[in-house]
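This is your field. Please look over both lines of this record.
***
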Amino acid sequence: MSKQGSAIIWLWLAALVFVLDIATKQIAEAFLNYGEPVYLLPVLDFTLLYNKGAAFSFLANEGGWQRWFFTAISLVVSIVLIVWLKKLPRTQLWLPIALALILGGALGNLFDRVMFGHVIDFISVHWDKSYFPAFNIADSAITVGAIMMAIDVVLEGKREAQQKAS
């Protein structure tokens, strides 16, 4: 490893996402009644819901095995992300931020699965009577991180193409 260090320094961002996620979920648990929307804007409300599955409630109606399946996946992904961060140079910015956001979100939802057997969701976005699946801060961080990773892949491809051309 170089004298500059690794991008593991970005673990603080993952920890911040984790803390914000857990705190907002606990606030939702304390102040919202399950399944009863609290109107905020014409397209947004807070509705406390539990998701035993993965994104978009994938496998939510299974017999309970999915809890441990998604727990194992979250653990493996979290370890891979930490190792990846450790291997990246500290001078990189975009990709480590993306990985830290994904890691913080994965750990937030992992905490819920282990502690409660489900993920706590409470942010509900909709248009008229069409609802997007409810989500939380962890899901938002994972989504932003994944978009950042996709952008990084595109930009890296362009950089490589420019280097080959010159």
Q: What stands out?
A: Residues 137-165 form the longest helix (29 residues). The chain has a mean pLDDT of 89. The CA atoms of residues 48 and 82 lie 31 Å apart.
